[in-house]
Design goal:
Number of helices: 16
Oligomer: single chain
Order of helices and strands: HHHHHHHHHHHHHHHH
Structural class: mainly alpha
Helix content: over 70%
Largest sheet: none
Radius of gyration: 21 Å
Number of domains: 2
Shape: globular
Length: 389
């Protein structure tokens, strides 16, 4: 079995985009899982499932920044992993119930394929091989705990899930980052695309939530919900994503670059994606009852999810450039402070206030940092290729 190393090729391949389509369904299923049981335990289960799915996706993001997914046997293994991940996604609604064992076994298959490809890719790289072997131990323990959770009952089930996720995500701290390799532009782009997938789920939630017909209230909620999703897109892709990609590219290869990739992308992108998924849950519930106030959990998902997204941006900026975003921290605190109002006001009004907060934040940053923003965008944006004669 052979694998072709990626080299300096920076583009995200069509097969990677095809692979990520499975996560569209997986993320949608997570939102549906939480929407079907809008309680604190239901929310917790949704977060655990999303965390497990996220870490499996992260593994493939690192993998395809080392090997070319469209060459050799890698293509076939990726297809097999897609099939297994599709089974995982289908099992999400009953992952804590009757489909728990099938979920765990299919998830283990996804991770085994990932480790197998990494072992092939690291055949001539001892440092990478040591890192992969460490990852394999963590993966085996995590998958074993999920299988054990399928047979557990009561509080043991979520506890085993939480332990599996903690051990799996904690592995890079235990085994270090020195041996890993990645292509910076490709790695950053891949994470930007998964943010887009999550934002797409917020748009899907608007359509799914409109179950009682289309009237003036639903139209208003759809328009305002789109504005909220657009604002979340703007806050990430306008400047932040460009700066982060350049920071990763400028870091010294090896420990420094890998640590930034681990912290800024593998770790800090998870609360961003989780925040977007929680907002999608809030949007779904809002569209279903625009004239009624939101219950505690959906209101917390809508406003708290936005706050989580903004706080992740604050940490993201600090980790990348060691600068503090006071305005995004304040906007996050405003979102949390709006929760009592969100429990009393009609859902449509709450959504409108949230949109105003996000638009005001974008407007402030646009004018307050206009010169710096334009300089960064022109300096960091990819330049079009010059025609050749």
């Amino acid at each position: 079995m052979t694998a072709v190393l990626r080299g300096d090729e920076e583009r995200v391949t069509p097969l990677e985009l095809f692979f990520d389509l499975v996560f569209v369904l997986a993320i949608t299923q997570c939102t549906a899982l939480m929407a079907a049981d809008p309680t604190w335990p239901g929310l917790g289960r949704g977060v655990l499932v999303l965390g497990v799915l996220w870490w499996s996706w992260v593994g493939y993001a690192w993998l395809t920044s080392v090997v070319d997914p469209e060459e050799g046997v890698v293509r076939l293994v990726i297809f097999a992993a897609m099939a297994a991940m599709l089974v995982v996604a289908l099992c999400v609604p009953e992952a804590f119930g009757t489909a728990g064992l099938l979920f765990a076994l299919a998830y283990a298959a996804v991770r085994v394929a990932h480790i197998a490809l990494f072992l092939v890719a690291s055949r001539d790289d001892p440092a990478l091989r040591r890192s992969v072997i460490g990852l394999a131990f963590g993966t085996a323990i995590g998958s074993g705990l999920l299988i054990a959770a399928a047979f557990a009952g009561g509080a043991w089930k979520p506890a085993l899930w939480a332990l599996a996720l903690a051990l799996d995500m904690g592995g890079p701290f235990v085994f270090g980052v020195e041996g890993w390799r990645l292509v910076p532009a490709h790695f950053a782009e891949r994470h930007g695309l998964i943010v887009l997938i999550a934002l797409g789920e917020s748009i899907v939630a608007i359509g799914v939530g409109a179950t009682s017909g289309v009237d003036a209230g639903v139209v208003a909620a759809a328009v305002i919900g789109t504005a909220v999703a657009t604002a979340l897109w703007w806050l990430y892709f306008d400047v932040v994503a460009l700066v982060a990609a350049r920071r990763l590219a400028n870091a010294s290869p090896g420990r420094e670059r890998n640590a930034i990739a681990r912290d800024s992308f593998s770790y800090l992108h998870f609360p961003m994606v989780l925040g977007i998924v929680l907002v999608a849950l809030g949007l779904k519930k809002t569209l279903g009852h625009v004239a009624e106030h939101l219950a505690v959990v959906p209101a917390t998902a809508l406003l708290g999810g936005t706050a989580l997204y903004l706080l992740a941006h604050v940490a993201f900026r600090w980790r990348n450039v060691h600068r503090f975003s006071l305005q995004r921290l304040l906007a996050a605190l405003v979102c949390v402070g709006l929760l009592p109002a969100g429990l009393a006001l009609p859902a449509l009004v709450t959504l409108g206030i949230l949109a105003v907060v996000l638009v005001a934040l974008i407007g402030y940053e646009h004018f307050r940092f206009a010169e710096l923003r334009e300089s960064l965008r022109h300096q960091l944006a990819p330049q079009p290729a010059m025609p050749t004669r």
